[in-house]
Design a protein that fits this description.
Length: 461
């Protein structure tokens, strides 16, 4: 192959090299990846211009100068691509440049030594040059595809990173909102706890008020109930005093009558027995009042429910009569004589009976005040043994409970009485005492205009 390249071709090579350098710099993003080498590539044309100028001054002309320059350009590009070996498109371009660089190295070497091989194998070298050039272009397109794929992956990673940052920002905002909401809920919880504490204190006061109201009714009943045995005690004491006076007078007489003395002593003994009986009755009433006023110990004791029900029937009746002297009602105790003692908290169950009986007398009194012709207030208390349970029924013939409120009567603070006459806790406390305190049941059966019956069912064992 005859050399056809002269000194002037250096300028052409310089312009081509500069254009390729700019294209490579943009393609491989050299300002970002290799900024110093990118600066060097900007001056890749300088060696060619300087060489051309010097050759022109000295009058030197040789085709080898342009070949040397171009071989140097390819070597410089190869070095840059080698430094970018971590970047896949750069490695692909380096592989594509290798055949062309090897061709120029061989052809430049043969030109330098003046070998005739270039001329002998001119067609072969031309074919090799074309093949190396096509090889470079093929690998350039491969590298471009790789770059697009990398850019797509980088764009995807950037979007994922952006989405990640957005999620982190949203999470941070959510954490802030959750923190604010948690603080608000904590504040509300503190306020609710404070309100609950106040509510419990108020409830305790209301329960105590209900107990005191129950105790007031019990005390009024006791005051009237205890009056009977006290009257008997006083009367028999007066009679006994008269008998003693008569006995003393008889003993002071000159002629004593032994038969009269024996009769007076027998009457005196009988009076003392009556005083003892009615004194015991009064003591029993006082003892019941004390038990009712004491706090429950929680220990159940076998109790005669007949006696308990009868006692509270009369106490409730006299309690209402203490408020209304004109009130009278028929009491109908109906007790099972075979009823065994049942282990209960007597004072608690007494409160239940007192509440139910007080409500019963209140109901019949209300109906009586309506002035119905032929109406006779009646309250009935009965006890029965039913299997393994004992039933206590409290029935009245009052006005009855409306169907609309029957389901609410055991709810705390619910009452059908006018304001000031009920707290709405009596039946609620009674329900808790029977169901929770004794494991029994408390139910109601009522019909308007006919009356109401409360049923207490307690286990015997």
């Amino acid at each position: 192959m005859t050399p056809r390249i002269g000194n002037a071709d250096l300028l052409l090579y310089a312009s081509v090299a500069f254009g390729i350098a700019r294209a490579v710099s943009k393609f491989l993003d050299l300002p970002k990846r290799l900024p110093r080498w990118d600066q060097a590539l900007r001056y890749i044309w300088v060696p060619a211009v300087v060489t051309y100028g010097l050759a022109l001054l000295v009058g030197f002309r040789s085709p080898v100068l342009a070949e040397y320059y171009w071989l140097g350009v390819e070597s410089f590009f190869g070095l840059v691509l080698l430094l970018l070996g971590y970047y896949r498109p750069a490695r692909t371009l380096l592989l594509g440049l290798a055949p062309l660089w090897f061709y120029h190295l061989l052809s430049t070497g043969l030109l330098t030594v003046g070998s005739g091989l270039l001329k002998t194998y001119d067609d072969g070298f031309d074919t090799a040059k074309i093949f190396a050039t096509l090889w470079l272009f093929c690998f350039f397109f491969i590298a471009r595809g790789q770059k697009k794929q990398i850019e797509k992956e980088e764009l995807q990673r950037a979007e994922e990173e952006k989405a990640k940052r957005l999620i982190e920002a949203q999470n941070a905002e959510l954490e802030r909102l959750v923190g604010e909401r948690t603080a608000a809920l904590t504040t509300q919880a503190e306020e609710l706890r404070g309100a609950l504490t106040e509510l419990r204190a108020t409830q305790a006061q209301l329960v105590q008020s209900e107990k005191m109201a129950s105790l007031g009714e019990l005390t009024a009943g006791i005051a009237h109930e205890i009056q009977n045995p006290l009257n008997f005690v006083n009367n028999f004491a007066e009679v006994s005093a008269e008998l003693v006076t008569e006995l003393e007078e008889e003993r002071a007489r000159p002629e004593r009558d032994p038969g009269l003395e024996d009769e007076l002593l027998a009457d005196l003994k009988q009076n003392l027995v009556k005083i003892t009986q009615h004194g015991g009755r009064a003591a029993s009433i006082v003892r019941g009042m004390l038990e009712h006023s004491r706090t429950s110990s929680g220990e159940r004791t076998p109790t005669d429910l007949n006696q308990l029900a009868d006692e509270y029937l009369r106490l409730a009746y006299h309690g209402l009569r203490a408020k209304d002297k004109t009130f009278n009602a028929t009491l109908e105790p109906d007790f099972d004589p075979s009823l065994p003692p049942v282990p209960v908290l007597a004072q608690d169950l007494g409160r239940v009976l007192l509440n139910l009986l007080s409500n019963a007398f209140y109901a019949v009194r209300q109906r009586q005040q309506r002035g119905e012709a032929g109406y006779a207030p009646t309250v009935r208390v009965s006890t029965r043994r039913v299997g393994d349970d004992v039933e206590i029924r409290v029935r009245d013939n009052g006005g009855g409970i409306p169907e609309s409120v029957k389901q609410k009567i055991f709810q705390p603070f619910f009452t059908t009485k006018p304001t000031g006459e009920g707290t709405g806790l009596g039946l609620s406390l009674s329900y808790d005492i029977v169901t929770q305190g004794h494991g029994g049941t408390l139910t109601v059966d009522s019909h308007e205009g006919q009356g109401t019956e409360f049923l207490i069912s307690l286990p015997v064992g």
